[in-house]
Every structure is written in C-alpha cells, then in structure tokens.
Amino acid sequence: MELTIDDKTFESFIDYDLIEKRIRVLAIQINVDYENKVPIIIGVLNGSFMFMADLMKQIEISCEADFIKVSSYRDMQSTGEVKEELGLSIDIENRDIILIEDIVDTGNTLEYLINKLKTKSPASIKVASLLLKPDALQKKIDEIAYIGFEITNDFVVGYGLDYNGIGRNTKNIYRIKV
Ligand SMILES: O=P(O)(O)OC[C@H]1O[C@H](OP(=O)(O)OP(=O)(O)O)[C@H](O)[C@@H]1O
Ligand code: HPA
C-alpha cells in the first residue's frame, strides 16, 4: 500500500506485526536490565507517543513515565537547531532514565537532550529508539542501548513519525519513494 502526503509518495516499509514483535524483545531486555530499579521512562514528544505506549505495555518492572517536547525538523530536513517546547515535571536527580525516541537520525536531538538531562544529575541515562539511521548519524552517542530497527537513510513516516505534521496515525511505517 502507498501513502501520499502533500507532494510526496511513501511505500510500505515496516509492518506493525514486525514492530510489535521487536518491541516485545526490547521490553524483555529492559525488564531484565532494570530489575529491582524504578526507572523514569521519558518520551520525547511528539514522535515517540506510539512506540512509548506499546513499549510500556510490555514493561513489567515498576517505572514512572514523563515527557519532554523538542522539535527541529521542517519539511524533511533537520534545521540543526533543537528547540525545547515543554520540560519535565519529575525530579530526575539520582534516578535511572530511559529516554524514548521514535527515530535517531543525525543524532542532534539526542545529543542536546542527553546534555541537558545530565545537568540534572540522574544516576544513569539510556536511550531506546525504535529506529536508527546509522548512515545519517553525526554524533557518537554511547547512551543508545535499545534499537528496534537500523534503517537506510531515507525519510520515513507513520507510527508516530510525520512529514510536516501529517502521517503519524498509521500502524505501519512507510518510506519515501524515489
Ligand atoms: O536525530 P535527529 O536528526 O535530531 O532527528 C531525530 C528527531 O527528529 C524527530 O523529531 P522532530 O523534530 O521532527 O519533532 P516531532 O517528534 O514532534 O516530529 C524525531 O522524533 C527525533 O526527535
Ligand atoms: O525519517 C524521518 N521521518 C520523520 N521524522 C524524522 N525526524 C528525523 N528523521 C525523520
């Protein structure tokens, strides 16, 4: 199936069945790694909302949830400037943090967020991202611990990810058709 948003056409890329299966595996790893801990799971809005919801349903350890909102993309390009739009509401000092992203592309957003969170002295920070584009990554980010899928350097939408605000509300993930 294809998806059209404005002037762009997207083709099927990752089906929800596969996403669901992969999330179950990530959650098992998190359940093991954080046994006897109470991490704060922080979703990076907007894109992470679907992944965060599905992942948290599979996480069985005790945990808290919070959100932070940043944005940097316009059209299909990173503006390079990460803008914080909404901050955290929980004190994270001495707490274990799991940051939830839908996608790590250039790594700019994550680098900005990790540096910012570190100033608040958490006990640890790890990142879980559904998608990672290894060929687009410009930063070395040691905190990346849980990755759903490594993908090619193509623009994707669906399952939370948007193109200019549209396309977040699909179960499957689509890739730009060239
Ligand atoms: O690694 P990067 O190149 O920084 O790209 C990744 C970021 O870009 C997207 O956010 P966006 O700014 O589009 O906001 P959104 O989540 O509201 O769509 C995505 O959700 C990540 O946070
Ligand atoms: O490929 C992408 N799709 C949607 N949003 C994004 N933000 C960074 N990369 C992407």
TrEMBL record:
<dbReference type="InterPro" id="IPR005904">
    <property type="entry name" value="Hxn_phspho_trans"/>
</dbReference>
<keyword id="KW-0660">Purine salvage</keyword>
<keyword id="KW-0479">Metal-binding</keyword>
<dbReference type="InterPro" id="IPR029057">
    <property type="entry name" value="PRTase-like"/>
</dbReference>
<dbReference type="GO" id="GO:0032264">
    <property type="term" value="P:IMP salvage"/>
</dbReference>
<keyword id="KW-0808">Transferase</keyword>
<comment type="similarity">
    <text>Belongs to the purine/pyrimidine phosphoribosyltransferase family.</text>
</comment>
<dbReference type="GO" id="GO:0000287">
    <property type="term" value="F:magnesium ion binding"/>
</dbReference>
<dbReference type="GO" id="GO:0032263">
    <property type="term" value="P:GMP salvage"/>
</dbReference>
<dbReference type="GO" id="GO:0004422">
    <property type="term" value="F:hypoxanthine phosphoribosyltransferase activity"/>
</dbReference>
<protein>
    <recommendedName>
        <fullName>Hypoxanthine phosphoribosyltransferase</fullName>
        <ecNumber>2.4.2.8</ecNumber>
    </recommendedName>
</protein>
<comment type="pathway">
    <text>Purine metabolism; IMP biosynthesis via salvage pathway; IMP from hypoxanthine: step 1/1.</text>
</comment>
<feature type="domain" description="Phosphoribosyltransferase">
    <location>
        <begin position="18"/>
        <end position="163"/>
    </location>
</feature>
<keyword id="KW-0963">Cytoplasm</keyword>
<dbReference type="GO" id="GO:0000166">
    <property type="term" value="F:nucleotide binding"/>
</dbReference>
<keyword id="KW-0460">Magnesium</keyword>
<dbReference type="GO" id="GO:0006166">
    <property type="term" value="P:purine ribonucleoside salvage"/>
</dbReference>
<dbReference type="InterPro" id="IPR050408">
    <property type="entry name" value="HGPRT"/>
</dbReference>
<dbReference type="GO" id="GO:0046100">
    <property type="term" value="P:hypoxanthine metabolic process"/>
</dbReference>
<dbReference type="InterPro" id="IPR000836">
    <property type="entry name" value="PRTase_dom"/>
</dbReference>
<dbReference type="Pfam" id="PF00156">
    <property type="entry name" value="Pribosyltran"/>
</dbReference>
<keyword id="KW-0547">Nucleotide-binding</keyword>
<dbReference type="GO" id="GO:0005829">
    <property type="term" value="C:cytosol"/>
</dbReference>
<dbReference type="GO" id="GO:0006178">
    <property type="term" value="P:guanine salvage"/>
</dbReference>
<dbReference type="GO" id="GO:0052657">
    <property type="term" value="F:guanine phosphoribosyltransferase activity"/>
</dbReference>
<keyword id="KW-0328">Glycosyltransferase</keyword>
